[in-house]
Fold this protein.
Amino acid sequence: MIVRLPYGTGALVGDLRGLRCFPLSPAAPRHPSPARQVVAEALERPLAGPPLEVMAKGRRRVTILVPDATRRGFLPEVLPELMARLAAAGVPEEGIAVLVACGTHPPVSAAQCAALLGPLPARVRVAQHDSRDDASLVSVGRLASGLEIRLNRLVVECDLAISVSLVQHHYLAGFGGGPKMVFPGVAGYREIQRNHARVIDLSTFPPRRHPACEPGVREGNPVAEEIAAAAALRPVDLALVMVVGGDERPAWAASGPLEAVFPAACGVVREWYEVEAGPFRRLVVSASGAPVDDTLIQAHKALDAACRFAEAGAEVLFVAACGAGAGSPDMEPFLADPRPEAITARLAQEYVQYGHTTLRIVEKTARVHVLARTELDSELLQRLGMRPVADVEGVFERWREEEAGAVVGVMAGPAVFPKVPAGWGTP
């Protein structure tokens, strides 16, 4: 089998002949209708509630929440459909704001933002959320825990809020997209950190990573449950959710109230992206190329998925360009003592979002042997417990020499996850 492994804006090609390949790929349909058509059909026939054109009549201030550059949102194809319907409803261009839901991620350049969104009507406002800009935040209330939730005033003060998101497994919050567009997408930094800190279970000694903070788990997941509660303080009026198919293009979409469309999307994700396979002694995983493999923080999510199919002591070849580096200097203090128990204790004292990312990485490298084909600094890789490799062919040749015909799990496209009981997770 000749395998194409997405890498940055290109791909690495590997020869796996002489080994028995087990593709770890979704059951999702391939070659669906064009994204704009899939979205148009979803907007014309919402799962519940009126269509967008009806909701938008008489509205003067509309805010559209969209994913940032670390997520795929197919916005150059999606936004024209939304703009056409808003125009048909009589919403003035100058009354429309497109708000990029960056969460805690840094904003990108104007050129990068323009490429992310595609062409927009001239008078539409574009803004990138800054979670640390207190002046842009408005309080929308408190949760039962007492945590105050602040959101970007563009979504709080508009008279019609729309969100666009891709729903997929999330290694911490169960599923990405949906309510995450509001919280943490356009929330304040301190409440985002408080929410993510719930991944550390302080009810045990020593503290541990909460067992329900896993992909596909919503009920009993303290991070996911708080995200839902926070987003409900300022619910979007219409959510457009998408699920990609096997060729990573939108194959399913729905519009309507979030409480209707998000569970439906999660059900599709489970059906398409949970598979029975493994465990494997050898695995190959690509982080799907740009923009997902721009940083280690984003790319490691594919590694997290693949390692769930690995037996203890397995070799996992991790292919991710990471041309923008690790992704945050916040990881550095945790690398001074990268033992999982040391990081957990440090996070229990003061939660740092990307300290948790570091924890997830070293949990994996303590369990399996990760061989990394990447642009990351080799010293950083070694501190994280990974072994840098110069080329994939050398790894495949060694595998053939060690065991001709060996079975190799290959995750070269969208990440898939084991079909397991809710709450299970092996880092």
About this structure: The radius of gyration is 21 Å. Residues 2-24+277-418 form a domain with the 2-enoyl-CoA Hydratase; Chain A, domain 1 fold (CATH 3.90.226.30). Residues 258-273 form the longest helix (16 residues).
